Amino acid sequence: MPQKSDSIGIIYGDVGSTEFNFTVDGHNIRKFDYVAAPHKEGYVLAQVMDIKRYSDLKFQDAATLRSNDELPYIKSSVSAYADVIGYRDKRGLLQTPRTPFETGSRIMPANEDLIRHVLNLYSEKQNGAYMGILKGLDLPVFLNIDSLVQKHICILAKTGGGKSYACGVLVEELLKKKIPMVIIDTHGEYLSLTKPNKDKKDQKNMGKFGVKSRHYSSQIVGYSPLGSRGDIEHLTLNGLNLEAREIIDLLHAKLSGPQIGVLYQSIKEMKEFKETYTIRDIIEAVARSKSNARWNVIASLESLDSIGVFSVKGTLATDLVKKGRCSIINMKGVPPDIQDVVVARLTKELFDDRKTGKLPPFLLIVEEAHNYCPERGFGTSVSSNMLRTVASEGRKFGMGLCVVSQRPAKVDKNIISQCNTNIILKVTNPNDLKAIIQSVEGLTNQTYNEIQRLPIGVALISGASIQIPVMVEIRTRETSHGGKSVTIFKDGEPTDFKPNIPKMPAPPPQKEHVVPVSSLPVSRNNITEKAVLVNRVAKRLGWVTTDSPEETIKQLTKEAEKMKENVYKYLDSLAKLGKKFCHEKDPECNRCPMNTGCRYRVSKPKKQGLFRK
């Protein structure tokens, strides 16, 4: 339980039940730190969302100061704004207070136990996917494996924001737990899971996250629609006994009513004489039709057959989905229209076999998802309908879906909204940000700004037992990252360049805080020289009667404000008079521009030096 001595600030101002402001009492509080606020329900967890410093230095005063001038004493204070996360009730449910916090309540730093308890960070290494550490704290963040696979995942980021890197971390964790996976690898990035991470920078960071370099080559099998090469096997689709509705779903060109009728009639007639048939058989059957609509149907079927991925048997779904195996469908070099057909047909085969129990529960990961399930208005894809079906029904049958995209605005909103686990990295495009806020639960308009400011490698994660979005520093990958940007100019490596960065300039001198004389020791070390000069001049002129420099400054400040004079410029002019003419001994009153109204000069006209030329 936090102690009173741990207080870092006090709640002030108008206070609600979901947010509050508090003073910061000299502690190093940073944005996104977690704090504990007392409430009648107990200590409530809140997160600092903004910090501001207030001062009495006005613009007019600052504008008159030159860069090399001695700064006056600036009174400042720090205030923080916190969003309330909540507390756990006796049933373990996350609740937010229904009554406001008390003004004047002391805010404490949240300890590790409170953070874990409220954020539900109890998943351990044995049953969770280790994604990284809580930003700003050394708390590991694990995502519940069952929630990840049974419910869907979306990983969203701008280009270069780290989405493929984060997805690679997730795949590594699922491989450790022997979870079957099928990855639609649009750019051939995930075959690097077979190689250990040898990046020197990454190896230095591994100790921070408690991971070591390793590979998963024994669990990775690569496939390609282009054919076998090296360790990559040839992926083919079952083209035997395709129904008319299946063919229509795979065609990019939409058939008219008469054309659909020709296709259905041709397949029906052929079935009466053949138990098994191929696309070529269908083409021949359509060619025998008397209808003029047959020519467009034949052209569409020829286009489908020409992609070369259909065979009599096809790659079995039971070979792709096995416990502990990750099947990577390498689409690198495959034309987009063929990719579309492969994803559509493969997803259907996997879904059908999972529904009938032929496959164990598994996760389908779709990279560059905006290509395969675009939002309406951003193009069409034959795989869209099938992916929508998996998103809406897959969780009932144990087929999880993970969509990864750099353009959230172009991904079907129905699919994103079905994802319970969201891993969002840096996004700056306004349309993409708007799409994320509208589609992902638990995000607010304030989150809109924070997503733009996320550092590379930091993700906003929600779901998978974590009900409140938290900022997580994604751990270093154990395997090589296949999505690195290509170095174009290699002659001048970045390590060869040593920038001549100027050192931070020393801050200009600032006046010390003038404390009351009554609280000062006999020594005058705490009073600035300028304050002493101002007090001497003002007293000799008869403007003040006090011997206290602080009291003099207060009185003259009020007078200057009444006259609408610049306070610091006004005081500085008196200090200059004191330094140049009004010496403590032997003042040069005859040369002083204020000598006509000086009471000191009038009271002691015969004092040596007063009229010195």
At the fold tier of CATH, the topology name of the largest domain is Rossmann fold
State the oligomer.
single chain
Low-confidence stretches are 514-525, 607-613
State Rg.
Answer: 37 Å
Strand order of the largest sheet: 9-8-21-20-19-10-18-17-11-16-12-13
CATH class of the largest domain: Alpha Beta
**Main sheet specs:** 12 strands, mixed
The structural class is alpha/beta
Question: Going by CATH, what is the homologous superfamily of the largest domain?
Answer: P-loop containing nucleotide triphosphate hydrolases
Mean pLDDT: 86
Instruction: Give the distance, in angstroms, between the N- and C-terminal Cα atoms.
Output: 75 Å
Strand % is 15-25%
Shape annotation:
elongated
What count of structural domains?
4
Question: What's the number of extended β-strand segments?
Answer: 21
Tell me roughly what share of residues is in helical segments.
25-40%
- What count of helical segments does DSSP give? 19
User: Judging by the overall fold, what is the CATH architecture of the largest domain?
Assistant: 3-Layer(aba) Sandwich
